[in-house]
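Sequence, please.
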């Protein structure tokens, strides 16, 4: 009976943590396939999820977001909140935005977890028109 209870608790914990995105994630450059940065995703008191760049693994061309058009304009990329306002919807996190500090463009965002990877999709308008990056769980 004790083994059955332990198995049930562990399997419940693994299912619950599978759909979570909180923690540090390694972003991968689409072109070079090299790790670019570490993004820390966290939940604020409003119940929504946010992500900020906690470490740069490749030195950017400019240390500040010179192309950003909002409150992030000319702010340092390191520490910048690039994910804002995601809400958990089943196994997906949607309804928020993601900003590319290189171009300064902001996109709608959907994130799904697949094991130790996140599928991070940025898009304009419909989700069909966009691109997906795979982020890896950081140790």
């Amino acid at each position: 009976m004790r083994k059955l209870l332990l198995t049930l608790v562990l399997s419940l914990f693994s299912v619950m943590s599978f759909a979570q995105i909180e923690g540090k994630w390694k972003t991968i450059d689409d072109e070079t396939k090299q790790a670019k940065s570490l993004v820390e995703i966290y939940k604020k008191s409003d119940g929504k999820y946010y992500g900020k760049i906690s470490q740069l693994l490749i030195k950017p061309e400019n240390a500040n977001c010179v192309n950003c058009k909002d409150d992030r304009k000319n702010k340092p990329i390191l520490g910048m909140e690039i994910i804002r306002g995601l809400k958990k919807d089943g196994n997906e996190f949607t309804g928020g935005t993601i900003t590319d500090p290189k171009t300064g463009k902001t996109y709608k965002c959907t994130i799904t977890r697949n094991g130790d990877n996140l599928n991070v999709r940025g898009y304009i308008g419909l989700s069909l028109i966009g691109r997906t990056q795979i982020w890896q769980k950081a140790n």
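DSSP finds one helix and eight strands in the chain.
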